[in-house]
Amino acid sequence: MQRTLLNALMAWKNQTVRKPLLIDGVRQTGKTFLLQELFGNTFANVLRIDFVENPAYKEAFDGSLSPDELLMNIELTTNQVFRPETDLLILDEIGECARAVTSLKYFAEKAPSYFVAASGSNIGLLNAFPVGKVEQYNLRPLTFQEFIHASQEPALIKAFDTQANSAAAHTKLLDKLTDYFFTGGMPEAVATWYQNRETSILERVERVSKIHADLVAGYRRDFGKYAGKVDATLIESVFNSIPAQLSLVTDESVKRFKFKNVHERKSRYSDFETAIHWLQSCRLALANYPVEGQPRVPLAAYKKENMVKLFLFDVGLLNHMLGSIYKEIKQQSYESSFYDYRGYVAENFVQQELTAIGVDPSFSWSDACAEVEFILATDEGDVVPVEVKSGKRTRAKSLASYVEKCAPRRTFKLTGTQGLSALEQTNIVMTLYFTQYLPLKW
Fold this sequence. Notes:
Layout: H1 6-13, E1 21-24, H2 31-39, E2 45-50, H3 67-78, E3 87-92, H4 98-110, E4 115-120, E5 135-138, H5 144-150, H6 154-161, H7 167-183, H8 187-195, H9 201-226, H10 232-246, H11 269-281, E6 285-292, E7 309-312, H12 315-321, H13 326-329, H14 336-356, E8 362-367, E9 370-377, E10 383-389, H15 397-406, E11 411-415, E12 427-431
Helix pairs in contact: 7-12, 8-9, 9-12, 10-11
């Protein structure tokens, strides 16, 4: 299973002077596998310290944080040899050891040639952080492209990577997209899905569903473990309410998160602000901020914190938490009810794909009864609307309203039908599964 982020890690390795790597991400997104197996295989040796697996490793950081003295203590503690010129040091679950976090500053300043990488599941919750002293990346669930590559089907991979626009490619890719809606991008779920392709579909579904259940249960346990001063029950209430509120939408745009009835005796944004921030910091919730009127860059300057749409970080877990049935997700495109069903799923999918290419947070547009699901700021300073239509009903009245009022240079429409992107230059239609190819510059 390959990860796109590996390319950035290789570029980091090839630098002559480098800051320590810091890989952030939700638990079980494959941070250790990426660093130790995929990236680690390019080094002569890997020395990995896991502060959760073996808390005794913290002792190596009790003394001096001078890189050479620290490495000597690590060698003594682990009984392993580390050669800075050729080996990779991995500090796994670094958030469990505050002095290890601090040590990254000294590696950056005093040993910029060393290969030091750290990872953690709750980096956003740290009280102290070596700002400007690390090269940080977020590892998210597998994108749809990574899901396609994990299939190990060469023709399918080629069709996706070249954005093939044939009927045959569309049929196959749309079929895989609905598989992705069920499995999501959590590495264990994806691996189980593909490794058991020779078994019955019922068995495959059952195994993936069990993985989803274990993951959700684990995240809920983490609320109590890592909540700190934030009310853990409040965090869980917001987390549980995200799928419930998304599912209230059928063929319309996802609505703003409503705070009433989420938690007993609380109904205002101020009551939930810390819980929402906690979920965002842990990458479990993805935020989209509606912008009203004429949108301008920077879009963040026009957002209102108390007006927010919340999406779940993984579409497979979203469907699991809603009790969605695989057979229901796989309904053929001829059934109009299917398009009603997957409207919010498609929007959550687009939010994930945009987040993966660096659009975080995202923004949308609203005006009276018109709503455009996403608006993107390009590198040239333009704002372009992106309408999401999951099925055959592709008439975009809200997009027409946006064009009339805001006069964008270009528009994009993501649909469940075969894309027509090669035929137009200003009003561009793209197939939903090609979301990652949305251009942020031209």
